[in-house]
Amino acid sequence: MNDIDAPLREPLSAEALEARLRSIGEQRYHHRHPFQLMLQNGELDRRQVQAWALNRYYYQAMIPHKDASLIARLDDPALRREWRSRLVDHDGEAEGEGGISRWLMLTDGLGLDRDMVVSTRRILPATRFAVDAYIHFVRERSVLEAIASSLTELFSPMVIGQRVSGMLKHYDFVSAETLAYFEPRLTQAPRDADMALDYVTRHARRLDQQQAVLDALIFKCNVLWTQLDALHHAYVAPGHVPPGAWSDKGAADDR
Ligand SMILES: O=C(O)c1cc(C(=O)O)c2c(n1)C(=O)C(=O)c1cc(C(=O)O)[nH]c1-2
């Protein structure tokens, strides 16, 4: 059994808790996933990158639902105020602004039909199951666990940097404009992650709380990992596209 899977035996200091959270990210975050490595190393074709962007749209679209449900459960106005910036980051202040709109610039740039993308009807079943599991987790678990599950963002700037530079280098069908989603994330993610880490290290003092926090981060790494597993299975090898999913040869609309 790996270190990070061993149950805690005694409460950790805030520093030791943070170190353990970071070692979970090092071992379980999706920067190690074969599909992510193929994406950043230029080993995917246009269809496979389209499949990634189409499926990940569902994650993007559901993040504000997740954050709104968390805000609804927070008693502290100061914390609600801080968390509210995440909604603005994704939804923008006006039509055409924010992360979801920027993600649609990517799917547009890749030649995917916008209505098809926004409908989410052609995503992989496993994408929907994994993302929905995250939404349910945040709704149903304690506020502490819900906040801890966002801590994958501690690791996202690293993977985003590698992904964007690799994609720009290797693929002529993407550009800095179509990948514009990621640029603001490089400052938004550290701001959000620092705040969540501060909350978690201040509020998880007892052993059971600390164990729950560690498990929440492992759960969330699995949410991200599972999405890439599903993409790999459907669009890389063995290439089994589930019936009804995008690029299913028997389905009508493949754009
Ligand atoms: O590109 C990535 O690899 C990546 C990872 C993650 C993450 O680690 O959960 C997020 C994002 N991007 C992202 O763009 C984003 O808005 C986001 C919100 C959250 C969250 O859990 O609240 N994670 C992530």
TrEMBL record:
Its EC number is 1.3.3.11. Signal peptide: none annotated. Coiled coil: none annotated. It comes from the Bacteria. It is an enzyme of class 1 (oxidoreductase). GO terms for molecular function: pyrroloquinoline-quinone synthase activity. It catalyses: 6-(2-amino-2-carboxyethyl)-7,8-dioxo-1,2,3,4,7,8-hexahydroquinoline-2,4-dicarboxylate + 3 O2 = pyrroloquinoline quinone + 2 H2O2 + 2 H2O + H(+). Pathway: Cofactor biosynthesis; pyrroloquinoline quinone biosynthesis. Keywords: Oxidoreductase, PQQ biosynthesis. It holds the Pfam family TENA_THI-4. Belongs to the PqqC family. PANTHER family: 4-AMINOBENZOATE SYNTHASE, PQQC-LIKE PROTEIN. Ring cyclization and eight-electron oxidation of 3a-(2-amino-2-carboxyethyl)-4,5-dioxo-4,5,6,7,8,9-hexahydroquinoline-7,9-dicarboxylic-acid to PQQ. This is Pyrroloquinoline-quinone synthase.
